[in-house]
Each structure stands twice: as C-alpha cells, then as structure tokens.
Amino acid sequence: MSILSRFLSLFNGGMRAYKIQDSQRLRRIGVTAKNLKELLAKGCEKLQINESEVTVVIEDDGTVVDDDKFFRKLPAQTVFVFLKKGENWRGAGALIHDALSKLYCASRKNEIANQIRDLLTDEDAPEKIHIISQYLEMLETNVDSEERAKHEDWFEGLNKKYKTKSEVMRHSAQTRVRSYFITAKEQIEKESDSDHKNSLISVMDDINNLLKKNDFNAFFFDRTSRGMMCDKKGWFTCEGPFDSKNCDKFHTINPYASRGYRQLFGLWNLDHIIEKSREVIPCLIEASKNLPKGKELNTDLLYKLLFTTDNLKLVQIGCHKKAARPSGNITWKDFCV
C-alpha cells in the first residue's frame, strides 16, 4: 500500500477498495472493506450468493483467500471471484474472446474458438486458462519499459530515488536476503552457548562480508542481471513446493508489468528446501560444540544453504508448505572442514 493510501486509511477506518465478480464474469462490482469478513458479507449481498457456501479466490491466479491476515496483505483494487459451491475458477474466457476479436477476422473466429475449446477440456484446463489469461492481460501492460518516466504508475508509493524497475526489484531481493541473514544471526545469538557463541558470530561476520561482496544477491530479481531467477522480460515461474521438482499449478508472474503485479510478487517466497531455522542453524550450532581439533566451520556450505538457489526455491504462496519437513538432510559433521 502506498504512503498516501496508508495516510487516507486513518480517516476511513482502514477501508480499502476492491473489485468483486462471479465466476461467469457477468458482473464486476466495486466494494470497500477493512477485513475479509466484511468483504465476504458485502460481496455475497451484491452478487446475491449464499455466504455459507461461497469460496473467495483471487482472479489473477485462483489463490483461495480464507485468512484475514493474508487478505490484508493484498493490494487495493485486487479483483476477487466469488465461487458458489461446486464451481471452479477457470477464468479468462472473456479475455480470450476479446483477444480473438482483435486478432482474427470474424470468418475464422468460430474455428479458432473451437480449437481452443478442444485444447482446454482436459484436467489441466484451469491452469492452461490461467496462463493464457496472464499473457493476454500483459498485452495491455507496460512490461518492456524500465525507466520511471515511461511508467510512472508502476512506481506509485515508492521512494523517488528509484529510477528504474530493476533498481526496485534488486532492492526487493536484497531485503529478503538481508532478512534471512538477520534471523539466522539472531537464532545463533539466542540458542548458542557462551563458550561457542564468539566463533559462530565470527562465521556470520564472514557470511555478511560475502553477502556485501555479492550485493546481497540483488541479481535474483533483476531481469537485466546475469543469474536472475526470471527471463529477460521479467517472467518468474513458481518452482513448486519443497518436496516437488516443479509447480503443477503453472504459477507465473511478471512484477515488471504493472504496480499490481509488483505488489502481488511480495506474496511469493524464497523457500529453503532444507529448513534454515529447524535444520541448518541447529546443525551449525552443534558443529561448533563438537568441532574436532584442526577443523573449522564450513562457511561456504552455510552460505550455500542459506543464500543460494542450491537450497532456495521461488514459490507462489499457494505452493509454500509451512509444515515441518523431514530432517536428516545434513548433519553437524557436514559443517566441519
């Protein structure tokens, strides 16, 4: 939310404006709400849907919204789809039709529509439609522009020091990496004993210097850098849950396209496959206690596990599993070299 929006919210009771629609896209209505409960009540009244059997999803990617904390993180003007019991969100039908109207002559429209209908009748249809929807929506955005002067709306609410989109995205990556460093160091300071704390803090100082040298991995989200996690246009693809090789929901996003997509990208996570707080740091602390003579703590391994894509996956929030994971992926001995 922009600074102006936050300021105004002080005078309107925290209300923000959203858009709602039913699964048929027959009506799109603007509503204001300060929490999910209020959005649900107003939406059901406007759309004449029974509140007890409705599911609310984000139009963009079909993510179910059933938690008020998550709802409050979504930007104003987010479009929500209210689904009745038994309905699924397939979306993009109107967008596909509009695109066909623009791109093809009337004589071929029915033929092409039939081909698309055949393509989208299998079990993966919702995901395929979602992908088509996103790409069609991008036709009306300003994906390629980098400079602030050419896409002012994208920068709304951001510090004037940022002149390009890539600068903003670099800062976003740095912020996440810094937060991992801070929480790791805090856990070490809290859980390590006094006899070994100094050696562990020294290791973290070395890690901090390495992060500074690498600009806190700002390149992760910078589409103009080598080693970025997106393609040259800025498209990011969800890598799926920690226990999967890929995302079977085909989640994709391009935060360079619009301010809304930039804000939604904040809900994507860099997820540690081998958990930072439950496995990596505890093993490091144990290694400091049992470090054999002539050995030292493995700084390179710690950096690799905490701050590189060897152990980090970019995941859409729907693929971010927070349950405890199987342990034993590493042992304290791995940190002794």
From TrEMBL:
Keyword Mitochondrion applies: no
Gene Ontology annotations of biological process type: apoptotic DNA fragmentation
E.C. number(s) listed in UniProt: 3.-.-.-
GO molecular function: DNA endonuclease activity; hydrolase activity
PROSITE patterns associated with the record: CIDE_N
Gene3D superfamilies assigned to the protein according to its UniProt record, in alphabetical order: 3.10.20.10
Domain CIDE-N intervals: 14-91
Keyword annotations from UniProtKB, A to Z: Apoptosis, Hydrolase
InterPro entries hit by this protein: CIDE-N_dom, DFF40, DFF40_C, His-Me_finger_sf
GO-annotated cellular components: cytoplasm; nucleus
Protein name: DFFB
Organism: Mytilus edulis
Lineage: Eukaryota, Metazoa, Spiralia, Lophotrochozoa, Mollusca
